[in-house]
Amino acid sequence: MQNITLKVAGMTCSHCAQSVEGAVKQVGASAKVDLHRNSVSVAFDESKLSLETIKEAIEDQGYDVK
Ligand code: 9UX
Question: Domain HMA spans what residues (predicted)?
Answer without folding.
Answer: 2-66
